[in-house]
């Protein structure tokens, strides 16, 4: 008997304060591009990318908040059915780091306990870094989250973030 090809689709929400690089991360991962003045495309809810994990085709749908986070008014449809989450903050934005815990709570209030990962983006901006390793490690430990340090600009560790979430998700189903 021929083995059925099972396709798994995972809705991933990328949350965090404005300007931490969420849209850029989605663009980078799904389209392989980085543009400094990327304008958010109105009307596009998500971008997707298909990867293979242990012989299984996994389709990741990465949802972009389209700037709504600034108004604390992300619609329910954004979170609805989310199966994994990236909690992002920026190396050069202290407020974005301080807000991580409240983002985590917000997601959990909407969709419960789903695989999550903590991401410190813009690690290329070494000279302007405001969050050091120890501080970030301590937060990850406190929140019991796997932690990745990325540069979307330089394409550092971005793939690892989504592979990890996919692995975690597949381990659950
Ligand atoms: P969002 O509001 O969280 O979706 O953030 P954006 O994706 O719009 O990014 C905000 C700004 O940060 C843009 O100018 C991006 O080009 C820039 N940016 C995103 N990721 C990085 C990164 O890893 N390094 C640097 N230096 N800039 C980045």
Question: What would your notes on this structure say?
Answer:
The relative contact order is 0.21. Helices cover 33% and strands 24% of the residues. The chain is of the alpha/beta class and 173 residues long. It is built from six helices and six strands. Strand 5 (116-121), helix 5 and strand 6 form a beta-alpha-beta unit. It has helices at residues 22-31, 76-79, 94-98, 100-111, 133-143, 158-172, and strands at 7-15, 46-53, 56-63, 84-90, 116-121, 146-149. The protein has a six-stranded mixed beta sheet with strand order 2-3-1-4-5-6, with helices on both faces. The structure holds guanosine-5'-diphosphate.
Number of helices: 6
Q: What's the alpha carbon Rg, rounded to whole Å?
A: 16 Å
Tell me the span between the first and last alpha carbons.
Answer: 24 Å
Main sheet summary: 6 strands, mixed
Could you state the order of secondary-structure elements as H and E? EHEEHEHHEHEH
The structural class is: alpha/beta
Heterogens: guanosine-5'-diphosphate
Strand proportion: 15-25%
Outline the low-pLDDT stretches. Answer: none
Strand order of the largest sheet: 2-3-1-4-5-6
Q: How many DSSP E strands? A: 6
- Described by the principal axes of the CA atoms, the overall outline is globular
Q: What level of helicity do the residues show? A: 25-40%
Mean pLDDT: 89
Protein name: Ras-related protein Rab-23-like
Organism: Saccoglossus kowalevskii
Keywords: GTP-binding, Nucleotide-binding
């Amino acid at each position: 008997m021929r083995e059925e090809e099972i396709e798994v689709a995972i809705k991933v929400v990328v949350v965090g304060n404005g300007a931490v690089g969420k849209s850029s991360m989605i663009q980078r991962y799904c389209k392989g591009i980085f543009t400094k003045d990327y304008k958010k495309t109105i009307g596009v809810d998500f971008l997707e990318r298909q990867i293979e994990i242990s012989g299984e085709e996994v389709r990741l749908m990465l949802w972009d908040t389209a700037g709504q986070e600034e108004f604390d008014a992300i619609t329910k449809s954004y979170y609805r059915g989310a199966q994994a989450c990236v909690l992002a903050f920026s190396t050069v934005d202290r407020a974005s780091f301080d807000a991580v815990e409240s983002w985590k709570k917000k997601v959990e209030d909407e969709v419960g306990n789903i695989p999550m990962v903590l991401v410190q983006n813009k690690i290329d901006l070494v000279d302007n870094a405001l969050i050091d390793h120890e501080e970030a490690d301590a937060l990850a430990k406190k929140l019991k989250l796997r932690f990745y340090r990325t540069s979307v600009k330089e394409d550092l560790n971005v793939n690892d973030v989504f592979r990890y979430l996919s692995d975690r998700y597949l381990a659950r189903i």
